[in-house]
UniProtKB/TrEMBL annotation:
Domain Ricin B lectin: 422-538
Keywords, comma-separated and alphabetical: Disulfide bond, Glycoprotein, Glycosidase, Hydrolase, Lectin, Secreted, Signal
Family: Belongs to the glycosyl hydrolase 27 family.
Natural source organism: Rasamsonia emersonii (strain ATCC 16479 / CBS 393.64 / IMI 116815)
Protein name: Alpha-galactosidase
Gene Ontology molecular-function annotations: alpha-galactosidase activity; carbohydrate binding
Compartments reported by the entry: Secreted
Signal peptide coordinates: 1-30
A single Gene Ontology CC term: extracellular region
Enzyme category, top tier: hydrolase
The keyword Disulfide bond is annotated on this UniProt entry: yes
């Protein structure tokens, strides 16, 4: 079967309900339009962060055996991915890529068979440029041949890097990645396509090109390495800081994720010597809360039981693999705590609380902050670390004595009478990181995020937006659409806002965009993915593509 998708069918507004997913599957086909290629985020192993270029057949066979023996395979980790340096320095006379015969004495088709016999898929690495980052032959000009070669070796997953691309413009990357996408789309069994293109645009003051690359990766492939590499085993610096850097990047991109496409904040560095057990567990819980790829880069045969245990946590894996694939978003951020939430396919709501601070601390979170009704509703919460159920009393969830860098994570079940969830959380500029803030005198400002109710917004399905500090006040484009402020909620279109995958928050009446830094906190004419106009909104908000 040829997988293709009429481009006329792709731009649309999609609320990611189960019905919408079914509609996707039946009306269209290619990446986010064909979630069947990778319906939930990939799970598995990659050698890079742990071993870099020192990879070989033994490492992969030992890892496969250890993943079966420890139960990691049974828990869902079913991909073994080679990274850079698996190749010989030159192509064969007929142009095909060759593996390093010292590293892979039996060859990659043999290795693919070995891992398949144990329930795994084999994945591989190439580069869209003239050479890989490690200096091995790149795929540029050989794309069709390389795709056929990988498939003939029994490989069904490609991570495509972006070193040595000339010129290094957004347009050139788009041409190359779309070419690969077309090749895969024409294959009867398309390879899962992991795209590293955005990582080449993630730094810098002007983020327009990064956002532009992010616009196309969900259409071309199943996951994208969107930013910096996670710290390697022998790397200098703080492994926790590296995790936090990638975590913070991921928080900027929730709008792009949908069943079939996943933001990839990079590997789980489960045996990094610079991490405490609490930090490793947080890393895992945060990635699961994001529905991020769970790709372990560690020496699995030597992982201690306590690490295997959290990697196999079936409640957290179920969250990661939830078929809505919603990415948890920030409800609030203060000096110590990040509070995140998202919805799950069975109607449950996730609560994830990270203590970023340096001291053990306690907090209490009102259910209204998760978009849940308070009056007359009682909820049950399951602690996903130990399976304990508690009843939420007084509409508040108490988190007691959370250690520094530890994460609490709960799955909250909603009784049928109280099953409505209003997307709730921070609205922040993804370039400046400033929070939209309700100020006195019915104004708004853009301020440092502080966790206050004036920075927690409810985004209703009608398109109205209110701060928790005053739910009868709605964000309004006033005065001939030149000023934005808060006024009593009504039904006017100047109080309705539409969120686009571009990150723009557009006023339905006037078509102007919420803009940071304009005079009088104005709304202004929508530009193309300008730093001042790209916003992160709570998960569950309808995103038009
Ligand atoms: C294979 O790779 C592992 C991990 O880097 C290394 O410890 C081992 O020495 C390598 N084996 C060979 C034969 O190169
Ligand atoms: C092939 O692998 C061997 C063993 O790791 C290594 O010494 C050699 O440099 C590799 N060749 C290339 C082209 O990377
Ligand atoms: C190209 O050559 C390699 C060995 O040098 C061989 O394994 C492969 O089958 C050849 N490819 C084609 C398409 O003939
Ligand atoms: C990259 O490869 C292309 C095609 O082989 C070639 O035309 C170009 O000169 C190379 N560029 C660099 C900088 O090596
Ligand atoms: C894919 O198939 C279509 C239709 O057969 C063809 O027009 C196109 O050139 C092919 N693309 C690639 C990259 O092979
Ligand atoms: C930001 O980059 C985009 C795309 O490269 C460009 O069109 C735009 O003018 C730049 N904006 C500023 C303020 O430099
Ligand atoms: C925690 O400690 C580190 C280093 O001691 C310091 O750089 C950082 O600012 C502290 N973080 C907080 C939230 O206090
Ligand atoms: C589970 O963990 C919570 C804190 O996260 C603790 O209050 C509770 O006592 C634990 N239950 C068990 C059975 O360990
Ligand atoms: C900003 O507000 C002042 C005072 O309300 C007003 O005079 C001015 O025209 C406004 N500027 C814009 C660009 O709306």
């Amino acid at each position: 079967m040829v997988l293709s998708c009429s481009s006329k069918m792709t731009p649309r507004s999609v609320l990611f309900t189960a019905a919408a997913i079914t509609a996707f599957l039946t009306t269209c086909s290619a990446s986010i339009e064909n979630p069947a290629i990778q319906p939930t985020p990939p799970m598995g192993f990659n050698n890079w962060a742990r071993f870099e270029c020192v990879l070989n057949e033994t490492l992969f066979t030992e890892t496969a055996d250890a993943m079966v023996a420890t139960g990691l395979r049974a828990a869902g980790y079913d991909r073994l991915n080679l990274d850079d340096c698996w190749m010989a320095y030159s192509r064969a006379p007929n142009g095909s890529l060759q593996w390093n015969e010292t590293k892979f004495p039996h060859g990659l088709p043999w290795l693919a068979d070995y891992v398949k016999a144990r329930g795994f898929h084999l994945g591989i690495y190439e580069d869209s440029g003239n050479a890989t980052c490690g200096g091995y032959p790149g795929s540029y000009g050989h794309e069709q041949l390389d795709a056929e070669t990988f498939a003939s070796w029994g490989i069904d997953y490609l991570k495509l890097d972006g070193c040595n691309v000339y010129p290094d413009t957004e347009q050139e990357y788009q041409a190359r990645y779309s070419h690969w996408h077309q090749i895969f789309s024409n294959m009867s069994h398309p390879l899962v396509f992991s795209e590293s293109a955005p990582a080449y645009f993630a730094s810098g003051d002007n983020l327009t090109d990064w956002y532009t690359v992010m616009d196309w990766v969900p259409v071309y492939g199943e996951l994208a390495r969107h930013s910096t590499d996670i710290l390697v085993y022998v790397g200098e610096g703080s492994a926790w800081d590296s995790i936090m850097v990638n975590y913070n990047y991921n928080l900027l991109l929730a709008r792009y994720q949908a069943p079939g496409y996943y933001n990839d904040p990079d590997f789980l560095i489960a045996d990094h010597p610079g991490l405490t057990l609490d930090e490793k567990r947080s890393h895992f819980a945060l990635w699961a809360s994001f529905s991020a790829p769970l790709i372990i880069s560690a020496y699995i045969p030597a992982l201690p039981d306590e690490v295997i245990a959290y990697l196999k946590n079936s409640d957290l894996i179920a969250v990661d693999q939830d078929r809505l694939a919603q990415q948890a978003t920030l409800v609030s951020r203060d000096d110590s705590f990040d509070v995140l939430t998202r919805s799950l396919a069975n109607g449950d709501q996730l609560l994830t609380v990270l203590n970023r601070g340096n001291d053990t601390a306690s907090t209490s979170i009102a259910v209204a902050r998760l978009g849940l009704e308070e009056a007359g509703c009682s909820y049950a919460a399951k602690d996903l670390w130990n399976g304990t159920w508690t009843t939420i009393v007084d509409g508040k969830i108490d988190i007691k004595d959370l250690a520094s860098h530890a994460t609490a994570v709960y799955r909250i079940s909603l009784p049928p009478r109280c099953s409505a969830v209003v997307p709730t959380g921070m609205i922040f500029n993804t370039a400046s990181k400033n929070c939209l803030t309700a100020s006195s005198q019915h104004g708004i400002s853009f301020a440092e995020c502080n966790g206050d109710d004036t920075q927690v917004w409810q985004v209703r399905s009608s398109g109205t937006i209110s701060p928790l500090s005053d739910q009868s006040a709605c964000l309004t484009a006033e005065d001939g659409a030149s000023v934005v402020g808060l006024s009593p909620c009504g039904k006017d279109k100047n109080q309705q806002w539409a969120y686009a995958v571009t990150g723009n928050l557009k006023n339905v009446a006037s078509g102007v965009c919420l803009t940071e830094g304009a005079q009088n906190n104005t709304v202004t004419v929508c530009g193309f993915e300008k730093n001042t106009q790209v916003w992160a909104l709570p998960s569950g908000v309808e995103v038009s593509r």
